Amino acid sequence: WAKAEGRGRWAVYDPERSARDIARSELVAGLPAALERGEFVLHYQPIVSLLGGTMLAVEALVRWQHPELGLIGPDRFIGLAEETGLIVRLGEWVLRRACHDAEAWRRQFPQARLVVSVNLAARQADDPAIVDVVADALECSGLPADLLQLELTESAVMGTAGEPLRSLHRLAALGVRLAIDDFGTGYSNLAYLRRLPIHCLKLAGPFVEGIRGDSSELSADHRDERIVDALVRLAHALELWVTAEAVETGAQAERLRSLRCDTGQGRFFGAPAPADEITARLRAAEEPG
Ligand code: C2E
Ligand code: MG
Ligand code: MG
Ligand code: MG
């Protein structure tokens, strides 16, 4: 009978599609209440020096502890939160929570000088209020500005009109560090990049994936290695730090180190984990011997 109503109606009766749509609309509808109920949690992933192996920073990565569906990753709800605008409030919660946790680590392990790195969605960065929100999060937590890093993608940095965001200079003036996330996957305007007050480039996972570290297993033309080599040189010429994302093997870490990459992040150095695990790691690093 669906057929009788015409081809266009078939999609309505596709059970797989409606399951997806329900999940999506339920997630959208559930987001604001989840924020009220405190169902979001932060996991932290170590960012480690490729020279000495010291944990220099952690990236805050949000998860939704859903009462029925369990732990939901950001890829399933950050996009929805951006579409609905909820990202502004969710992002502010992430920022305040991350600053609070980082300040607790600073008090307990002052020598570690651990930086916390927080993702900013384009929509948040585009909001002129972001500078006051960041300043207030620092003030309320007591975290020194230089222990906060904000990660923006290339497209977020370029803003909506293709102009670099004016807020970036005001954020940098607060003393926070700015990083370009997933560098190499977007459209970078190098002419602007060189004038922006950024501190760090995070090389996107796909380039790192192409690095095997074992010369016998290198991809035919070493293309990803050459790209990483060039991007590291570019970053260093601009006096920026470089973090390699998605480092999964020791061989990759070793190769990235020889390409002069400064820091690495990925499963090889530690998966994203609850704050307690970072505390335990800081404690272990402090123990003599
Ligand atoms: P991202 O900022 O590029 O974060 C890095 C992602 O790589 C994380 O995924 C992390 O779990 C994953 N990853 C870690 N180790 C490895 C590895 O060894 N190999 C590979 N292939 N991947 C690894 P996650 O946690 O699912 O986050 C996905 C994205 O969601 C983030 O990408 C970021 O764009 C967004 N996101 C997460 N938290 C927030 C947030 O608080 N605010 C905003 N605006 N976006 C967020
Ligand atoms: Mg990030
Ligand atoms: Mg990234
Ligand atoms: Mg990403």
UniProtKB/TrEMBL annotation:
Coiled coil: none annotated. Residues 24-286 form the EAL domain. It comes from the Bacteria. This is EAL domain-containing protein. The lineage of its organism: Bacteria, Bacillati, Actinomycetota, Actinomycetes, Micromonosporales.
